[in-house]
Design goal:
By secondary structure, the chain is α/β, with parallel strands linked by helices. It has 7 helices and 7 strands; from the N terminus they run βαααβαβαββββαα. The chain has a 7-stranded mixed sheet with strand order 4-3-2-1-5-6-7, covered by helices on one side.
Length: 163
């Protein structure tokens, strides 16, 4: 699967309470959550994010609580992939479960800037910064995790329903 989109860039330790503030956890509807996604760290995100955009972050993205609302809000906003130096483990697993692909890029994530256009090859783990003419190698997602993402999440994958 190859994805292409504009980047939204964030730093270290972006926690789940910043991704979707607790005051908005009265629903699990991804579209409703998306309206408030990142609002406490980036008020422009929810109103300007476009389908196909990509979040790029530095270390420990998704730290904090174990709620699935954070990756649901990101996916509901139309973001197709999150690339980061590293992820909090529970966020990583929750994202895979709901079909939001992630790539750990290590310190090369610092070289990507907000607004850059990326082309991400999930199968090969290649992150190409089209804007800057650079390419980076991430560890590609294992085949079965790519299949979960393509199915739209773990429930769809195990039930045979494809989105």
């Amino acid at each position: 699967m190859i994805l292409e989109g504009k980047t939204w860039k964030y730093g270290d330790n972006v926690d789940t309470d910043v991704i979707i503030p607790a005051r908005h956890l009265t629903t699990a509807d991804p579209k409703e959550l998306a309206v408030h996604c990142m609002e406490d760290i980036d008020a422009a995100f929810a109103v300007n994010v476009q389908p196909g955009d990509i979040i790029v972050a530095e270390r420990n993205f998704g730290c904090g609580s174990s709620r699935e609302h954070a990756p649901l809000a990101i996916k509901g906003s139309g973001v197709t992939c999150v690339v980061a130096d590293s992820f909090a483990r529970i966020f990583y697993r929750n994202a895979i479960n709901i079909g939001l692909p992630l790539l750990e890029l290590g310190s090369d994530a610092k070289k990507i800037q907000a607004g850059d256009t990326l082309r991400v090859d999930l199968a090969k783990g290649i992150v190409e910064n089209i804007t800057r003419g650079e390419a980076f190698q991430a560890q590609p997602l294992p085949g079965f995790i790519q299949e979960i993402a393509q199915a739209g999440g773990l429930v769809s994958y195990v039930s045979g329903v494809r989105k």
